[in-house]
Amino acid sequence: MKKILVITKDAGGAEILSSLIKREKDNYSWFVYTSKRSPADIIFQKKKLSEIVNYADGNSVYASVNDIKPDYFFYSTNW
């Protein structure tokens, strides 16, 4: 299964990405990184996607990229 890494924090990007993830949730392995209590965190919780959310700062996200080795990488502005 293809792996997709997502980094998002702002509401606009999170709305778009969370809708895509909700629709394609079973077709890919999703790894979502955001900040706790960020607009993105709230949106992912509302859409019942919190089980795929990881909380991290910028440094730990960079380390995770090497561990995950994603096939695709999606991000929104404001990280």
Keywords for this structure?
79 residues, alpha/beta, 4-stranded parallel sheet, 3 helices, 42% helix, globular
Overview of the structural elements:
It is a single chain. The protein is built from three helices and four strands. The chain has helices at residues 11-24, 39-46, 58-68, and strands spanning 3-7, 29-34, 53-55, 72-75. The longest helix is centred in the first third of the chain and has 14 residues, at 11-24. The protein is an alpha/beta fold. A four-stranded parallel sheet has the order 3-2-1-4, with helices on both faces. Helix 1 (11-24) packs parallel to helix 2. Helix 1 links the parallel strand 1 (3-7) and strand 2 (29-34).
Quick take:
With 79 residues, the chain is α/β, with parallel strands linked by helices. It has helices spanning 11-24, 39-46, 58-68, and strands spanning 3-7, 29-34, 53-55, 72-75.
Globally, the shape reads globular
**Strand numbers in spatial order across the main sheet:** 3-2-1-4
Strands, count? 4
What radius of gyration results from the CA coordinates?
11 Å
Query: Tell me about the biggest sheet?
Result: 4 strands, parallel
